[in-house]
């Protein structure tokens, strides 16, 4: 056995609430999102988890979620690395648009392809495959070594950057990973073997 990797999608954002494509737009947590992030911290505190290092994106909804968790477990000043490699998928021309308005403009089928295909990006944006192309090297170079040394690592990020990471961890195919739903503020605890494979996975939902 090696170390522990804890993944948490940020709490609900103000734009999640308004059904807008958010992507790289730096929007805050909603009132519910603040509560979800605090609840994630409480769940991890109840498990007695302590972290050796934390990673988050360059966007405040993930950063605030990370800080709520660290506050809850009594590690307010833990070393936290912020990097755009963990940012949400960039939705390009869809950023800031209401999802229903986007369907009216481009059609239901086309918007569904952009949202749920693995390798078809929206205009000016990233596909999930593109997102993975920045997440995977960052994980391998910056995060995984801490876990393989037996550390406990917290990652507070976004639905698509975490999908890309989970795809690599669990060996999930492109067509399957796009179907994976990640709840806001729901911690996922991975125990990794010394060879970096997954020994166990636990989702702290509910």
Map the helices and strands.
Elements: E1 4-9, H1 14-17, H2 31-46, E2 53-56, H3 60-72, E3 80-82, H4 99-106, H5 108-116, H6 128-148, E4 152-157, H7 159-170, H8 174-177, E5 187-192, E6 198-203
Parallel strand pairs: 1-4, 2-3, 2-4
Antiparallel strand pairs: 1-5, 5-6
Describe the protein's architecture and organization.
The protein is an alpha/beta fold and 206 residues long. The chain has one domain: 3-Layer(aba) Sandwich (Rossmann fold). Helices cover 42% and strands 15% of the residues. It contains eight helices and six strands. It has helices at residues 14-17, 31-46, 60-72, 99-106, 108-116, 128-148, 159-170, 174-177; strands spanning 4-9, 53-56, 80-82, 152-157, 187-192, 198-203. The chain has a six-stranded mixed sheet, with helices on both faces. α6 crosses α7 (159-170). The radius of gyration is 16 Å and the shape is globular. The model has no long low-confidence stretch (mean pLDDT 96).
